């Protein structure tokens, strides 16, 4: 381009002399979104879809971890990653936790989902997908907001005896959690967590694809927090500076219930002085054991 040429690029448009060409600015997620709209629009618009998505994702994850728990009894290469390798998960543990999860979903979640399906009209879906930055930042924003909400909720339910005895104590019947303990909850706690997961993307005005992405991320991380394993590829071992809690810190919460209240990040426990030193002693023991 020579000096003084009228051709120039800005704001995603290319101007050449008196002609204007609009450059493509389509989101990298647009092909995926177009495919979903073309093939599954009726399903996506249904009020039942988020419930089916969350329940199926949770069952898939706990099935995976439960298989690992069963194999760990005879497979040292799996058992070495357990936070408590001496603690073997029994069929009684699996049956008990799965029974309460099934009860809560049949008595509370399923009727609420059917009610939405009957009385709530199908939601309109936008034609455009979110940009990749909007998608990722939306999930991050929802995660930060949820983390703050649950930290306060969790703290109150440990500090106020009536709240703990009435609603939260059932979750602490297991001092050494495994994946099915994730939703071994009172109905009040399950409904509260589900409410925030649903409402937070609305408050932050997220695209529905972002909302579903946050839902999946939330379920994955919550299950991972309770899985009872400390894998090298777990998120808490990948995020630097100890900013992410993870399974080790949440296991410490079940060992010392007045510590580590935040579900995901570590900063609220740092600021509130509720970080458990048990985490550090476990980490040192684990490094020493793996180095033998």
Q: How would you characterize the overall build of this protein?
A:
With 292 residues, the chain is mainly alpha-helical. It is 61% helix and 4% strand. It has 12 helices and 3 strands. It has helices spanning 30-45, 49-72, 76-79, 91-119, 132-159, 161-168, 187-203, 208-226, 235-238, 246-255, 267-272, 278-291, and strands spanning 8-10, 13-16, 19-22. It has a 3-stranded antiparallel beta sheet with strand order 1-2-3, with no helix packed on it. Strand 1 and strand 2 (13-16) form a beta hairpin. The longest helix has 29 residues, at 91-119. The model is unreliable at 1-24 and 287-292 (pLDDT under 50).
Give me a quick take on this structure.
The protein is mainly alpha-helical and 292 residues long.
Please render the helix and strand layout as text.
Elements: E1 8-10, E2 13-16, E3 19-22, H1 30-45, H2 49-72, H3 76-79, H4 91-119, H5 132-159, H6 161-168, H7 187-203, H8 208-226, H9 235-238, H10 246-255, H11 267-272, H12 278-291
Antiparallel strand pairs: 1-2, 2-3
């Amino acid at each position: 381009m020579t000096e003084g040429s009228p051709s120039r690029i800005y704001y995603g448009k290319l101007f050449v002399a008196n002609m204007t060409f609009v450059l493509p600015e389509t989101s990298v997620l647009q092909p995926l979104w177009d495919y979903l709209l073309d093939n599954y629009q009726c399903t996506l618009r249904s009020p039942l879809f988020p419930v089916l998505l969350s329940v199926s994702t949770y069952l898939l994850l706990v099935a995976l971890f439960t298989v690992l728990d069963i194999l760990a009894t005879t497979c040292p290469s799996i058992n070495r990653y357990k936070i408590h390798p001496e603690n073997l998960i029994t069929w009684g543990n699996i049956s008990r936790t799965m029974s309460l999860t099934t009860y809560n979903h049949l008595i509370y979640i399923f009727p609420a989902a059917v009610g939405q399906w009957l009385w709530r009209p199908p939601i309109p879906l936008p034609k455009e997908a979110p940009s990749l930055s909007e998608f990722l930042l939306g999930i991050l924003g929802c995660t930060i907001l949820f983390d703050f909400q649950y930290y306060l909720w969790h703290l109150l339910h440990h500090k106020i005896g009536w709240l703990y005895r009435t609603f939260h104590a059932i979750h602490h019947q297991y001092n050494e959690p495994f994946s099915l303990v994730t939703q071994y909850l009172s109905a009040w706690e399950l409904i509260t967590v589900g409410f925030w997961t649903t409402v937070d993307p609305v408050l932050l005005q997220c695209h529905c694809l972002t909302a579903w992405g946050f839902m999946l991320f939330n379920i994955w991380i919550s299950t991972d927090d309770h899985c009872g394993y400390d894998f090298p590829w777990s998120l808490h071992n990948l995020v630097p500076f100890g900013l992410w809690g993870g399974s080790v810190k949440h296991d410490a919460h079940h060992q010392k219930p007045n510590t580590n209240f935040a579900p995901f990040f570590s900063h609220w426990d740092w600021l509130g002085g509720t970080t458990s030193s048990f985490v550090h002693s476990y980490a040192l023991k684990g490094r020493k054991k793996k180095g033998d």
